[in-house]
Amino acid sequence: MRLGVNIDHVATVRQARLAPEPEPVAAAVLAELAGAHGITVHLRGDRRHMQERDVELLRQVVATKLNLEMAATPEMIDVAVRVKPHQATLVPEQPQELTTTGGLDVVSHANALRIVVQSLRTAGITTSVFIDADPAQVQGAAEVGAEAVEINTGPYAEAAENARTEHRDKVAAAA
Fold first, then answer.
1. 49-67 CB burial, b ≥16 within 10 A, e <16
2. What are the CA-CA distances from residue 78 to residues 6, 56, 83, 88, 110 (Å)?
3. Whole-angstrom Cα Rg for the chain
4. 126-141 average pLDDT score
5. CA–CA separation, 96 vs 160, rounded Å?
6. Containing H/E element for 168?
7. SS in 3 state form for 70-126?
8. Cβ-based burial of 34 (10 A; exposed 0-12, middle 13-18, buried ≥19)
9. Section 31-51 average pLDDT
10. Are strands 87-90 and 126-131 parallel, antiparallel or unpaired?
11. What is the pTM of this model?
12. CB 44 within 8 A of CB 50
């Protein structure tokens, strides 16, 4: 995937307005028409923005690739296996966070994640993990069977100018 467009905030606006629009499916179609190579959505346990209906419709409509970001919970595994997105990216999820703030600790949760990854792969879903820029986490991702990783670049983006080199080097070492 070269350019994946995350459309979560389209759903955030819809939910805040308590209205049927804006429609995330329409945003996905427009993104693809504009050249996106994939659409990413995060179905959270609290359903604060994306809803299962959105994910189901997106799976039917997205012509490129649908990447479902999700927590490694039985509920989300069931949704993913039923909907069958092209890819599932496992992310940590904290109830009070506004957005995902750090990577999944694959090393500490290896046994549980190995089972989740195997369940998703058995269903024909490419599996990725969102991790911090740490070579040990990359190795852990490989050991649990993840087929891809997404490296958290938040610390780089939020760093002061004089600290960016250090964070860039961490991302490069992990990649």
1. bbbeebbeebbeebebbbb
2. 22, 13, 9, 12, 20
3. 16
4. 97
5. 26
6. helix 164-174
7. ECCCHHHHHHHHHHCCCEEEECCCCCCCCCCCCCCCCCCCHHHHHHHHHHHHHCCCE
8. exposed
9. 96
10. parallel
11. 0.94
12. yes
Q: Give the other-Cβ count within 10 Å of 79's Cβ.
A: 18
CA of 58: how far to CAs of 83, 117, 157, 158, 161, in Å? 10, 22, 29, 31, 39
Reported as half-sphere exposure (CB side, CA atoms, 13 A), residue 68 has a value of 33
Question: Please, what's the b/e burial string for 83-121 (b: 16 or more CB within 10 A of its CB; e: otherwise)?
Answer: bebbbbbbbbbeeeeeebeebbbbbebeeebbebbebbe
Looking at the DSSP bridge assignments, the partners of residue 67 are 40, 87
**What is the Cα–Cα distance from 153 to 173, expressed in whole angstroms?**
13
* pLDDT band at 1; cut points 50, 70, 90: low
Total residue count of the chain as it appears in this document: 175
Q: Are 67 and 1 in contact (CB under 8 A)?
A: yes
Sheet holding 126-131, edge to edge: 4-6, 38-42, 66-70, 87-90, 126-131, 148-151
Distance from C-alpha of 81 to C-alpha of 88, rounded to nearest angstrom: 10
- d(CA 91, CA 69) in angstroms, rounded, equals 6
pLDDT at 96: 72
